[in-house]
């Protein structure tokens, strides 16, 4: 009887984690679509500052509610400031890329982040990476080449923006090790928003333009969808095994393709779909190998 209850609880947690992951990914895709819309009139730095400024009180309430008063205190503020700088670089590069590329294509290239994480952890953190994961790394870069097609008439230098985003995101994920282990995931989320808001606020002074009244609701929406997406994805990893929920991050390609088609009539070409399939396969291999290594 006990084993059945335990199995039911595990199954329920897995379903909850997958649902949270899918909902969080959908929210972040809406966040990206709004960001792409706003880049027509505003600098990515101004967009990011306003998004963080609006989201910071929400993030503080979430951290206080789920992490308690301890979540508001940091033992290593400098580490969070550095992580905020990495996040700002990643987000600025991504929004800049969105102003030149289709939503689905940019999203596909960011999927290469697990490949960078694996390569960087082996090269700089001296973690043991077997031949299967190295093969997945090479496979991921093959997928990137299929999407980008360097040397062809369709090649765009703007493709380097989401690729750089994936690199900075990988460094950001690995930098979580610099944070004091006593701090909760909610503290990381709160200080990432706060540090990103502080740094983008300083940088946006040099590119600030007056906000049009009709765009105010877009800034509120991008803050709410961005915060909701990150919160749900974070909670998904708390209630279910990472190896189970991480692959559902790739549902972003479905949402990005749908939103790109509905809003801008974008249609990813065949090479983008083939490259996306290769990149997703490489990421799945890495996630599965990480899961087995964790067990």
Account of the protein in words:
Helices cover 75% and strands 0% of the residues. The chain is mainly α and 295 residues long. Helix 5 (113-123) crosses helix 7 (160-174). It is globular and about 45 Å long. The protein starts with a helix and ends with a helix.
Radius of gyration: 19 Å
Q: What's the helix-strand series?
A: HHHHHHHHHHHH
Average pLDDT taken over every residue? 88
Distance between the termini: 26 Å
Tell me the number of strands: 0
Major sheet details: none
Strand-residue fraction?
Answer: under 5%
Catalogue the unreliable spans. Answer: none
Please tag this protein with its features:
globular; 12 helices; about 300 residues; about 0% strand; mainly alpha; about 75% helix
How is the secondary structure organized here?
Blueprint: H1 2-38, H2 44-67, H3 77-98, H4 103-110, H5 113-123, H6 131-148, H7 160-174, H8 185-204, H9 216-239, H10 242-245, H11 252-264, H12 270-294
Helix pairs in contact: 1-9, 1-11, 2-8, 2-9, 3-7, 3-8, 4-7, 4-11, 4-12, 5-6, 5-7, 6-12
What is shown here, in short?
By secondary structure, the protein is mainly alpha-helical. 75% of the residues lie in helices and 0% in strands.
